[in-house]
Design goal:
Strand order of the largest sheet: 1-2
Number of helices: 2
Largest sheet: 2 strands, antiparallel
Distance between the termini: 55 Å
Strand content: 5-15%
Helix content: 25-40%
Shape: flat
Oligomer: single chain
Number of strands: 2
Order of helices and strands: HEEH
């Protein structure tokens, strides 16, 4: 049996879609010649935030960032006031 072949782009799109359902978008850090730049990291950014900073620790993989988006959605739902 041959090993499964997959397109990494499909996985990235699926994780970004999952994060969007959670209310976040997944973005890479940026190289901007500053000490806090993390272009090697992924960030979960709220959809409504058009100018979110992408500095700090971030996540090593897009899957970790997608998991964080899910965790943040659950926190948001748990802290929402009951109507």
């Amino acid at each position: 049996m041959s090993p499964a072949k997959f397109d990494p782009g499909v996985i990235v799109r699926a994780l970004r879609f999952r994060a969007k359902l959670d209310g976040f978008r997944l973005e890479r850090g940026h190289y901007m010649d500053r000490s806090d730049d993390r272009a090697d990291r992924w960030y979960a950014v709220p959809l409504e935030d058009n100018d979110a900073p992408r500095s700090g620790d971030g996540f090593r993989t897009i899957a970790e960032a997608a998991d964080e988006a899910e965790r943040l959605r659950k926190l948001r739902e748990a802290s929402a006031p009951d109507d």
